[in-house]
Predict the 3D structure of the following.
Amino acid sequence: MIEPPPSTLTHLECSICGTQHSAEELQTVCRECGRALFARYDLERAKRTLTREGFGARSATMWRYAEVLPASELAASVSLGEGMTPLLWTPRLGADLGCRALWVKDEGGNPTGSFKARGIAAAMAMAKRLGVTEVGMPTAGNAGSAAAAYGARSGIIAHIAMPQDTPPAIVSEIRQFGGELQLVDGLIDEAGRLIAEGSRRHGWFEMATLKEPYRVEGKKTMGYELWEQLDGELPEAILYPTGGGTGLIGMWKAFAELEQMGLVGSERPRMFAVQAKGCAPIVQAWLAGAERAEPWPDAATIAPGIRVPAPFADDLILRALRESSGAAVAVSDDAIVQAMRQLARLEGVDACPEGAATLAGLELLLSDGVLSGDERIVLFNTGSGLKHPELRARA
C-alpha cells in the first residue's frame, strides 16, 4: 500500500452563519452563533488525486480519503482499521419487501462494533495533533466504547458519562479499554451536563456530538464509501437511524464535496431519518414543518443510540431532510425487534436495534407509497447485535 496524499484541510466554517475559524487551534462551536462548525478543504487540490482509479493502492480503511479528512498524517498511529465496511445486496429481504435493489451498509464490523469508530478516530487524530491529553464524552452507548478504545490507541485519557441503563456489554467494553466511566441517573442530556461541567473544571476537551468539528468528518466517509462501492453513483434513498444525526449530516456534506470535485452530479439520495416512537423529536419537528426540534419528554426505547431527546444539530438534520426531499419516520420497539429477526434470518445480518429500525421504517415508507420498490435503497445498520443479548431473547 502507498501513503495517500496529505489532508487539504484549510479552515473551519460555521454551518449556520458562515463565520470562519482556524483549524490550527482547538475549536468547539462557532464563536459567533454557537452552532456546529464544519471542516473545509482545498477541493481543487484534493480532486487531482482523489479518484476511484487511484484507490486500488490505498488502505482499505476510511483513511483512503485522506485528502478530505483532518490530521490524516496521524492515521497510522490512531487508526484501528475503521471504515470500508461491506455494502450488502439483500435479494431475499428485497424479494420479501418487493424491492429490486436493496442494500444494507453493515457497520457492525468496525472496531468496537459500530459506526462510532469512524467519527471518534477522526476526532482523536485531530485532538492528538493539537496536543490534547484528556477528552470528555457524553454518550448513549457505542460512542463511549469507541472513545475508550481510540483514547487507548492515541494515548489520550477518555472521560465518559452515559446512562446507567446502557447495555452491560457496552459498559464492560469501556472499562476494558480503560475509559474513565461515570454512569448517570438519566439520559444522554444529563451525561452531557456532567461532561460539560467536568470539562470546565478539569480542562478536558469536550468531544460531544457536533460540539467539536471532526467527528462528523469521520462519519461522512460512509457517503464516500457508498459512492465508491456503487461504482461512482449514489443510491436514490438512504434510511439512517437518527439520534444525534452526525452520520446523516456527514453524508450530506460528503455528497456536496463529491459534487464540488466533479465526481458526482447534482442528483442526491433522498435522506430518511428513522427514530423510535418513544423518542422522536426530529419526526415531530418534521411533521410540524419546524426549523428546530423541541426536546422529547420521558424518552424511552430499546434502541439506546437513538434515545436522544434533544439533538444539538437538529436544524442540520432537518435541513438535510428538506434539501433532499426526504422525510422522518418513527417506528415502534416491537417493530424494531421484528426487524432484527428479519435481517438475521433472511440475510444473516446481525443488526443492532438502531440499524433494525431502518428496516421497520422502510416497511412504513413502502406501505405509504413514499418509497417505491423500484428505487435503489440503502439501509444503515450502525452496529453489531452482539452488544444486545437482552434483545436476542425477544427476537
About this structure: The mean pLDDT is 96. The chain has three domains: 9-78, 87-112+217-392, 116-206. The first strand starts at residue 9 and ends at 14. Residues 29 and 347 are 41 Å apart (CA to CA).
